[in-house]
Amino acid sequence: MAHDVVVIGGGNAALCAAMTAAEAGASVLILETAPKAYRGGNSRHTRNFRCMHKGPLGPLVDDYSEDEYLADLMKVTAGKTDGDLARLAIRSSEECLPWMQDHGVHFQPSLSGTLSLARTNAFFMGGGKSLVNAYYRTAAKLGIDVLYEAQVTHLELAGDQIAWIDYSHGGEIHRITPKAVVVASGGFQADTEWLTRAWGPAAKNFLIRGTPYNRGVVLADLLDQGVQSVGDADQCHAVAIDGRAPKFDGGIVTRLDCVPFSIVVNKNAERFYDEGEDVWPKRYAIWGRLVAAQPDQVGYVIIDAKSLNLFMPSVFPPLKADTIEDLARQMGLPADRLRSTVDDFNAACGDQTGFHPTELDGVATSGLTPAKTNWARPITEPPFYGYSLRTGVTFTYLGLKVDENAQCSTQDGPIKNLWAAGETMAGSILGQGYLAGFGMTIGTVFGRIAGREAAAHAS
């Protein structure tokens, strides 16, 4: 059977595009590189969706305006974003939440506590895997065909349109000629050689939080043919994760949320950045890059007993010791240097009475470089705890440049039948940094746009 629309990829953006196209009357085929058990790309590991809303919406409390949302984005990206596309994503997110519910997604009641997200982020009941499974159930009801372990190897760009797609499946090469194509196959983070070309030798020490199937094959194929790109190869969503995480696919559980209540040192037992710069959902994504810049691309978190229960529990238990010196030995750090760093930090801590773990509290150090500007409490209460940190890459920002209709172009103009959605075009909006839950926003908004436009073209 020939299909009107072929969607390359099997995660959130791909599914949103496929469902939208099918509901518009198109026949749709999804080509997913991963086996069925690993379908869904990085969406399997997500937890939430950042959503603008005027007043309470679903599980979200109060309101979260377009301007506040944009200000949060501008802060983490330092203004490196396409403002028009960013506003489109933000503004469209409000209508997406009920659409998601209509397509099988269930949300948890609003969250309180250390995440500080009850107003801004809606959490999926059962996490990203449940969302992916719900969408695949809906896709089946809509008559969408899915091929797993179908790796696209080439899209033939002929003039201003994609003429055919080559993919391998079942040990054979297949060629198809759909009327419209949506690329939603993610970044290149699982290709360590490409990462190393972009970052240098340090990338060999990076861990990949997400799927091992995002190797950038389709992205490279299109860029080689002159499809316009956006973003830099060395920009990505990289966070500091537990140093004991696996090389690939560790997912969300490997993240550590303890940094705001700690000091973080490098292998020389020296602090290197303000651990209390902002609430964690707005600042966690810079720490992957910070750790990447340290010797051996590793950092070490030090906390004491009074901070242990202030953050989400870790999947691996922390190292534990009754003295700072013993903790240093367990972590392979110079004990005298760590003792000195902790003593200097403790001496710089002032009045603790305003301490508030879930909001900026101004409890700061004095006369210390780098300063800790919030949640600065002395590390004095045994037992002491430690974690190692490594750079965990979620997805890369070099991608396909799109317009407000999610359409791709060459320097000669739009490609008539090619659209992109999700992480493969997120660099259009995320020039650097990251905002918790925003990847799912981009994928949902632009997946729906791409599906709508592809179906319209096919008809």
UniProtKB/TrEMBL annotation:
Pfam families: FAD_binding_2. Coiled coil: none annotated. SUPFAM superfamilies: FAD/NAD(P)-binding domain, Succinate dehydrogenase/fumarate reductase flavoprotein, catalytic domain. Gene3D superfamilies: FAD/NAD(P)-binding domain, Succinate dehydrogenase/fumarate reductase flavoprotein, catalytic domain. InterPro entries: CobZ, FAD-dep_OxRdtase_2_FAD-bd, FAD-oxidoreductase_2, FAD/NAD-bd_sf, Succ_DH/fumarate_Rdtase_cat_sf. Residues 4-431 form the FAD-dependent oxidoreductase 2 FAD-binding domain. Its cofactor is FAD. Keywords: FAD, Flavoprotein, Oxidoreductase. This is FAD-dependent tricarballylate dehydrogenase TcuA. The lineage of its organism: Bacteria, Pseudomonadati, Pseudomonadota, Alphaproteobacteria, Hyphomicrobiales.
